[in-house]
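Subject: sequence -> structure tokens, single chain

Hey, anyone have a minute? Need the predicted structure for the following. Not urgent.
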Amino acid sequence: MQWKLLQGTYINSKIHQGKILKNGLILHFKLKHLCHPILKLMKYFSKIKEHIIRLNKKGLSTAQIASAVALGNLIGFIPILGTHTIAAIGLAYIFRLNPLIVFLGTQISNPISYPFQIFISAEIGNLILKGRFLEIEFSREINYLNHYIFPIIVGSLVLGIIVSGLSYTLVKYFLNKRRGLR
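Reply:
Had a minute. Here:
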């Protein structure tokens, strides 16, 4: 189905072709403008992957790359909101690791996963400190430092160490496998 617009300009019923009439004006429209953020994000992740592979080929050892990812994961789990990037770059220079890879490792903590990380950290921390799972209470008489904050800190350190150890092992294994080493 086609519609005739101004002065012989045609538009197909498929949105991604031609032009669209809105408020008496003809707007040029392309599908790529709708998908621009998604395409940009996909390009971003492919560039990150290419960069890590290039670093792997340039002489960084698999242990260095795996250590950088593991340090980034550890920093990502520590509840220091808003300062993950600064801590990652600082510790990368102290340990002489690639700051970009350490920064990429901190991305395990993002707005989607962070509430779950805090909840699991609080549960693990309370289990370690008090021997039972966290009891969620809504009262004005709760000591928030002892009831919530300490378990979150302890649990996030334990969870961060476990995840960073696991990520070190997995990244090193897959990079060695990619290089053909065992």
